[in-house]
């Protein structure tokens, strides 16, 4: 068993200012909490956290990461709570331990297979400190190294998970060495026979490979010296078992056909120009295979990997690969993100333009414009999957959503029907408003009611195009259904004036109406009715087509005398009362006073042709009018028809008064003195200790309203009176 002091010493060497005592305390804490527990191997449980900490110390991570390694299973597997860790070891360690607990929850949450990619992205998206992932990878590495102690089924599951989730994460973070070990260990347990067979085949060729690589590297070194290219070392490597196996499977080939089974690797001092110089030497020595040269220096891979790769035909005619990189590129290829800590420490007192920092600087610039290397982790994290969040269904399926997505987006992502009938949502068991943004790792449950329908209001917050399109589609259909209904009513009314039976006319089996629809360019009669409902067509012109010009003119004269009552009849039909507003030049459009400004007879007004709801009449003073002017083609002139004596408009007034008794009585009596009806009056005291009295009065027109307002202003104690917007 590795001793804690060994680990302490390693950390101290890499981080001279580290709080080493914290490591010793973490060790004793972990030892006490895991006391009596054993691993599947029969060893004391403590071996595991110690080994994990040791792996982290070898990665040269800081004392916070290493302490987290010692404590990583304490919250999961013992009775210790996160608060205790915070109290004993501070915010940073507690934060990392919590991150690890979160990861454990995600892996157990996602029961569905085939979701590896999403689990991976989710892990990386929700972890706000990359050290959490590094500790998790070290944990997984030690578990994989000791996997053979577990039962076969458990072994398979863990090995598969390692291959699906953790090895790719290591790859994404550029940690080539760790990834290779995880993959080869997983391969060994998942396909033990293939593994043994392949290992045996390679073993047979070992001497052959060794001789070849020895001769080749010696040759390269010699030529580099001749060409005066400084190099650090030239080494040979045999391709890893798992990646050979993948290649054999994928390309359905034999081992002898794997051209990059062995490769030479040239490691150079930290100057890029040496790489290209070495490449020239190699290409002079052996003929390059066309199309096999890859410049990962000029365009580094997403995971920061940099190297030149070329394949050449060797002296005996067999092709092999040569990899060329600087010492630093090599370290990054092996250690990836973990290489960062080395630089971070080395930076103290080092020269700014030291070669060693070239990579970090370019990386930092590359991920984002970040000045300080402390922002490095943050920028790296943001660069990974910045635009997505991942949430679970209650069944454990992962749904990927854009940032800011809401339960409505989530519902439509599951199924259109789920979206259409969604009425509410629970996030992590709590009922939330439908507009709540979903966070990474949330479990979202959609509450549905089969009679429920989408709401136009959802368009104000959904972010996925799927949800947006579905809701829009639904709203449009809804408007169309309304328009057809309104169009039918308007048409029936007008037809009745011409003594036409609409029952017969609108019957679907009647070809006449369909023909007329066709003349207007509509395929279906419903389209024609919808056009009438939208106000695009007037029923008169449709009837004139139907009757023919002569018959129409004849009947129209008789109709003319009844025009006025006709208009009122339409209004009544649609429950607007008989406070007639006419649209200039057209007598039978559906009109409605807008609720936002509630215009009163005699006020200047304008009409706006809405979609599906006829003409909305706004007062010119209405604050919405300016916005409506964006569509001038929809503005129509409207005017008040003659005032009818019994039409009264309800208007709400607000009187601000001194705070004293009797105000409400004074105001209401002033209003009734004017023979004006009062529908409602209520008083309250505002925070400024002034009285606020709201009165709803019934007025016949705007002049009447002005008189009432003046009368209320005249009541002693009234400071101000204003008309409130909106319907009373
Ligand atoms: Mn563990």
Mean pLDDT: 81
Strand content: 5-15%
The radius of gyration over CA amounts to: 40 Å
Low-confidence stretches: 343-384, 561-579
Using brief descriptors, characterize the structure shown.
single chain; 728 residues; alpha+beta; Hypothetical protein af1432; Beta Polymerase, domain 2; Ubiquitin-like (UB roll); 6 domains; 6-stranded mixed β-sheet; 4-stranded mixed β-sheet; 30 helices; 21 strands; 50% helix; elongated; binds manganese (II) ion
Topology:
Blueprint: H1 4-14, H2 20-33, H3 47-58, H4 63-71, H5 74-77, H6 82-109, H7 116-126, H8 130-145, H9 152-172, H10 176-190, H11 192-204, H12 206-226, E1 233-238, H13 241-251, E2 262-268, H14 272-285, E3 287-288, E4 294-295, E5 308-313, E6 319-326, H15 327-335, H16 339-346, H17 358-367, H18 376-384, E7 388-392, E8 398-402, H19 407-414, H20 416-420, E9 422-427, E10 430-432, E11 444-448, H21 465-497, H22 502-506, H23 511-519, H24 525-534, H25 539-547, H26 549-560, H27 563-573, E12 581-583, E13 591-593, E14 605-609, E15 615-619, H28 625-628, E16 635-636, E17 638-640, E18 649-657, H29 663-673, E19 677-685, E20 691-699, H30 702-713, E21 718-723
Parallel strand pairs: 2-6, 13-15
Antiparallel strand pairs: 1-2, 3-5, 4-5, 5-6, 7-8, 9-10, 9-11, 12-17, 14-15, 14-16, 18-20, 18-21, 19-20
Helix pairs in contact: 1-2, 1-3, 2-4, 3-4, 3-8, 4-6, 4-8, 6-8, 7-9, 8-10, 9-10, 10-11, 19-21, 21-24, 21-27, 25-26
The chain binds manganese (II) ion (MN).
Manganese (II) ion binds at residues 48, 72-73, 139.
